């Protein structure tokens, strides 16, 4: 079995990957849950989405990238070897996301009074045990709602972020659609690749789980340096760790 490790090569992509992870986990736990534990996990992921959205200007970053990709994709209409039906579907999807996301004034969800309540929970999350019924009776009350009521709340609260999620999804999909693949191996637990002036957005490492190691990656505009560590965080010095590198430039520079 192979394990995939993603490593963003700029802070913009790091923000997208973090949010995609939070959205994916939110939707994973939005299901029938008659005891409330899964909905509690979904809510915590939603709160982290709100915090990330408030901290960074994610909406405008996504809109900028959607404009860039639209410009690139429109030019592909002139190429005969491009699947035009798939291209038009992608452009239509992109236009829908851009139109809905750009129609939102200011930060997403910031005017929703419920968001204030959710952010107050975020402040409590920073202190161990502060989500107990003693300290947060309003939170305890929400967990005691019926399954259908909690589901309705969660779907209502995530709705303003719907097109932000879709925008991040399509941008990461387009970035991953153009890749350079390398089959490589380490020496003394390390691997180095010179970039020779080439700019990339994202690096993925695919490695067999039998090695039981994870990568620690350092990068700059000149090179990528990869070391492997065991689970206890001690450096793995074994030779000949074979793995695959995927480098994505996504066209956008």
The total count of strands amounts to 7
Instruction: Quote the CATH topology of the largest domain.
Output: YacF-like
Kindly estimate the percentage of residues that lie in beta strands according to DSSP.
15-25%
Largest sheet: 4 strands, antiparallel
Name the average pLDDT.
Answer: 87
Label the structural class.
alpha+beta
H/E topology pattern: EHHHHHHHHEEEEEE
Give the overall silhouette.
globular
The low-pLDDT segments are none
CATH superfamily placement of the largest domain: YacF-like
Question: Gyration radius, to the nearest Å?
Answer: 21 Å
Kindly, what is the distance between the CA atoms of the first and last residues, rounded to a whole number of angstroms? 34 Å
CATH architecture of the largest domain: Orthogonal Bundle
CATH secondary-structure class of the largest domain: Mainly Alpha
Report on this structure.
There is one protein chain. The protein is α+β, with helices and mostly antiparallel strands and 253 residues long. It has 2 domains: 163 residues, Orthogonal Bundle (YacF-like), CATH 1.10.3900.10; 70 residues, YacF-like domains (YacF-like, Sandwich), CATH 2.60.440. The chain is 48% helix and 18% strand. The chain is built from 8 helices and 7 strands. The strands form 2 sheets. A 4-stranded antiparallel sheet has the order 1-4-7-2. It has a 3-stranded antiparallel sheet with strand order 3-6-5, with no helix packed on it. A hairpin with a 3-residue loop joins strand 5 and strand 6. Helix 1 runs antiparallel to helix 2 and helix 4 packs antiparallel against helix 8. The longest helix is centred in the first third of the chain and has 19 residues. The relative contact order is 0.16. The mean pLDDT is 87.
């Amino acid at each position: 079995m192979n394990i995939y490790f993603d490593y963003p090569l700029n802070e913009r992509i790091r923000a997208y990957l973090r949010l995609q992870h939070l959205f994916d986990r939110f939707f994973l736990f939005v299901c029938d849950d008659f005891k409330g534990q899964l909905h509690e996990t979904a809510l915590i992921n939603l709160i982290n989405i709100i915090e990330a959205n408030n901290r960074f200007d994610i909406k405008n970053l996504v809109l900028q990238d959607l404009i860039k990709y639209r410009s690139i994709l429109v030019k592909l209409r002139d190429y005969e070897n491009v699947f035009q039906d798939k291209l038009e579907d992608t452009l239509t999807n992109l236009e829908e996301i851009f139109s809905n996301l750009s129609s939102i004034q200011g930060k997403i969800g910031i005017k929703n009074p419920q968001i204030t309540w959710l952010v107050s929970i975020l402040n409590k999350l920073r202190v161990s045990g502060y989500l107990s019924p003693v300290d947060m009776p309003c939170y305890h009350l929400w967990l005691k709602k019926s399954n259908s009521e909690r589901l309705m709340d969660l779907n209502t609260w995530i709705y303003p972020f719907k097109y932000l999620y879709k925008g991040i999804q399509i941008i990461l999909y387009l970035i991953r659609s153009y890749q350079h693949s390398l089959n490589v191996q380490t020496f003394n637990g390390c691997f180095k690749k010179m970039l020779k002036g080439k700019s990339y957005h994202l690096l993925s490492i695919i490695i067999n789980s039998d090695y039981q190691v994870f990568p620690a990656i350092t990068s700059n505009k000149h090179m990528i340096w990869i070391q492997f560590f065991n689970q206890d965080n001690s450096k793995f010095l074994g030779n000949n760790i074979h793995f695959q590198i995927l480098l994505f430039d996504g066209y956008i520079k």
